[in-house]
């Protein structure tokens, strides 16, 4: 139904503008009438936008929508009616402008009511799919259908409408009637068919609050909530960029040496990209955090504006335009879904109203300012320092828009990020492959987590014991632990992975990886985290890197999958320091044999296996040197112990020294959930009790 109404609206937008233009003669008057009607449609946003959201949050949204649609029915129908009643051209145009202004005003109230109501009707898991459908219908299918219908009407009725007795059959008039009746139909469907829109809690939340208070509270909510701030900032930034692209499009097409055809091609490319972004985006990024996806999509759209700015050839410009559209489409979808799904019902209307008002204003300003600016300098070329490098002002403007958009996308990303500390590109790559990285579990470490890693016989157990003694003598609480086998469950797992059959009946590599991960999950939850919370120094003989080296490089399982598994098992807990005892496998394995306690299943692996393990450890250390202390394990044990103790001294004296990233620090608050003062908390509890009573 909303699709049909949207079709009617697009048709109405085209029809009112064309209709106004046909009522006057002369090019200038026609242009003014056409542009005037469109400008009038945008103006009410200025006046009414801020209060529209309050109405959506205050009154029954179903009745608000129905009343708005009935009003729009009457107003749309009145435009052709005035002409039918025989009014003169000027009067008809005047009334078309006034009616359009009123229609837009009413629409401004209808949109936040509808947008705020939709999330209450659809389960959250389906919200994105519903938004996909709505956006594709509203911005993809219905404008095209409307344009086709307008052209079809024009062709079909050309003969009839010249007949003076058939004035009512002018194409623009018919289109307006269609628009009017589509609104009447929406009103009836919402009133009789979607009664659930009325049944929400939010309306009764604060009936005693005045409108002004609600209005002010809405703005405060937007300003104070990082998620909403980020969303609003990102959406406005994206629209500003989009406005500049639209405003400069014609000059840009001519700067490519192409004419009107190129202009239409670029426009088409943006819409193709938009449809691809909205339609395929969720399938590509799969489980990726929607907050991250939103910021990244804005960065993609803006970076693609830069491609436009430097495009030397039409094909490059078309690629840029498709990517601009794809980024914008994905940002639009992610933004709408986040607004609907993560914002409480009682303020949702006001947030939607701010977004819709802001986007209209920003778009209008960006289009007009950029078209004026390129109009002034667009046909000329700026010649830099007489070096023969000439840059058109259109491209400079696009460059500025791209940079500003990237900035807006990054700031939005930062404000909303719900996976702080998780590398962005790895997360994106993991999500595309169906395995997004998990954020670190909120946790306060008051201690120090030191891990010893390395190949077989490197001297880890020896050095763990030496360090524990040294720290214990200084009065520190030290917890010595190991993987696998630090807990009862771990002991049993150790028996499975290190004992057990070899040859064809041996444990499969994936099962082995899962068993090590299970040991680790239990170990971290029951030994490591509690000790770190107490403030102890935890010294572990092996941790995550052993899985990456042995199961990843040694068994040749995909390292990113093993890494994801470990990060899931540990909730993202990273050591403060990893001491890597680097040993040639020939030397290490000889020591193991000389120890005389026999060899286990892994120690019995080939030399090539142990070589791969060794270089995997070294690669891990090279990728994050601040967190690692790499020592040559062939040095005497005392020298190694002194080097380790020296590094620990530095870290314990200066808690901010490199490698002590998580120490004594609380994980950041989740974005979108600012900490509340006792006062604020008290107020919320009071109002909740009041509401319940
Ligand atoms: N720096 C060293 N130089 C020579 N021998 C050493 C050195 N450090 C330890 N050793 C000896 O090497 C053998 C293995 O040492 P240790 O058990 O500490 O190594 P590990 O890395 O824990 O072995 P595993 O890989 O089995 O866990 C022991 O006999 C130990 O005494
Ligand atoms: C944690 C972990 C260990 N391993 C391997 C490495 C060793 O061969 C054994 C542990 O024996 P140690 O004498 O206690 O060093 O297990 C592994 O393959 N994957 C891991 O995650």
TrEMBL record:
Residues 452-642 form the Thymidylate kinase-like domain. Residues 655-693 are annotated as: Disordered. It catalyses: dTMP + ATP = dTDP + ADP. Signal peptide: none annotated. It holds the Pfam family Thymidylate_kin. Keywords: ATP-binding, Kinase, Membrane, Nucleotide biosynthesis, Nucleotide-binding, Transferase, Transmembrane, Transmembrane helix. GO terms for molecular function: dTMP kinase activity. Residues 676-693 have a biased composition (Basic and acidic residues). NCBIfam families: DTMP_kinase (TIGR00041). Phosphorylation of dTMP to form dTDP in both de novo and salvage pathways of dTTP synthesis. This is Thymidylate kinase. The lineage of its organism: Bacteria, Bacillati, Actinomycetota, Actinomycetes, Micromonosporales.
């Amino acid at each position: 139904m909303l699709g049909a109404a949207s079709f009617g609206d697009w048709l109405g937008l085209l029809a009112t503008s064309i209709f106004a233009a046909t009522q006057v003669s002369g090019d200038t008057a026609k242009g003014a009438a056409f542009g005037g009607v469109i400008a009038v449609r945008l103006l009410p946003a200025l006046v009414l936008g801020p209060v529209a959201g309050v109405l959506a949050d205050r009154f029954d949204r179903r009745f608000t929508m129905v009343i708005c649609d009935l009003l729009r029915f009457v107003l749309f129908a009145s435009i052709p009616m005035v002409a039918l009643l025989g009014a003169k051209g000027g009067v008809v145009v005047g009334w078309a402008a006034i009616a359009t202004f009123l229609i837009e005003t009413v629409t401004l109230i209808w949109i936040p009511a509808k947008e705020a109501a939709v999330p209450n009707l659809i389960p959250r898991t389906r919200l994105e799919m519903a938004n996909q459908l709505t956006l594709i219908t509203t911005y993809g299918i219905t404008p095209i259908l409307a344009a086709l219908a307008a052209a079809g009407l024009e062709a079909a009725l050309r003969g009839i409408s010249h007949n003076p007795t058939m004035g009512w059959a002018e194409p623009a008039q018919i289109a307006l009637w269609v628009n009017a009746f589509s609104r009447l139909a929406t009103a009836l469907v919402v009133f009789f068919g979607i009664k659930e829109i009325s049944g929400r809690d939010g309306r009764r939340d604060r009936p005693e609050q005045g409108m002004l208070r609600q209005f002010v509270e809405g703005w405060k909510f937007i300003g104070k909530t990082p998620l909403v701030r980020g969303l609003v900032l990102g959406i406005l930034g994206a629209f500003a960029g989009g406005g500049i692209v639209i405003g400069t499009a014609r000059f840009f097409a001519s700067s490519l040496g192409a004419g009107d055809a190129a202009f239409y091609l670029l426009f088409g490319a943006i819409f193709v990209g938009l449809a691809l972004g909205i339609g395929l985006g969720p399938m590509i990024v799969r489980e990726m955090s929607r907050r991250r996806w939103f910021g990244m999509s804005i960065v993609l759209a803006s970076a693609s504006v830069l491609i436009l700015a430097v495009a030397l050839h039409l094909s490059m410009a078309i690629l840029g335009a498709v990517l601009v559209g794809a980024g914008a489409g994905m940002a639009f979808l992610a933004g709408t879904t986040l607004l609907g799904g993560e914002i409480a019902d009682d303020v949702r209307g006001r947030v939607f109203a701010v977004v819709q008002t802001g986007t209209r204003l920003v778009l209008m300003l960006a289009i007009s300012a950029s078209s004026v600016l390129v109009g002034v300098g667009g046909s000329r070329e700026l010649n830099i320092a007489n070096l023969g490098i000439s840059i058109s002002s259109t491209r400079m403007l696009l460059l500025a828009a791209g940079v500003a958009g990237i900035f807006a996308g990054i700031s939005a990303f930062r404000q909303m990020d719900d996976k702080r500390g998780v590398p962005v590109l790895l997360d994106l790559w993991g999500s595309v492959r169906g395995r997004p990285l998990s954020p670190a579990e909120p946790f306060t470490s008051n201690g120090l987590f030191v891990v010893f890693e390395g190949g077989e016989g490197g001297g880890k157990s020896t050095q763990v014991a030496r360090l524990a003694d040294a720290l214990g003598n200084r009065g520190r609480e030290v917890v010595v632990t190991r993987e696998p086998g630090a807990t009862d469950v771990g002991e049993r797992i150790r028996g499975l992975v290190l004992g057990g059959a070899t040859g064809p009946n041996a444990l499969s590599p994936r099962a082995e990886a899962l068993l090590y991960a299970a040991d680790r999950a239990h170990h971290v939850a029951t030994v490591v985290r509690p000790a770190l919370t107490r403030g102890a120094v935890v010294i572990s003989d092996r941790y995550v890197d052993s899985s990456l080296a042995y199961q990843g490089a040694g068994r040749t399982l995909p390292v990113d999958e093993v890494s994801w598994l470990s990060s899931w098992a540990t909730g993202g807990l990273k050591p403060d320091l990893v001491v890597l005892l680097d040993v040639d496998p020939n030397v290490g394995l000889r020591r193991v044999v000389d120890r005389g306690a026999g060899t286990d299943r892994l120690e019995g692996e080939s030399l090539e296996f142990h070589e791969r393990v060794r270089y995997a450890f070294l690669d891990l250390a090279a990728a994050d040197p601040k967190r690692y202390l790499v020592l040559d394990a062939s040095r005497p044990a005392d020298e190694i112990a002194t080097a380790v103790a020296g590094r620990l001294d530095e870290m314990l004296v200066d808690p901010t020294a490199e490698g002590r990233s998580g120490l004594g620090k609380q994980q950041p608050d989740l974005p979108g959930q600012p900490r509340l003062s006792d006062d604020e908390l008290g107020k919320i509890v009071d109002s909740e009790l009041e509401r319940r009573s």
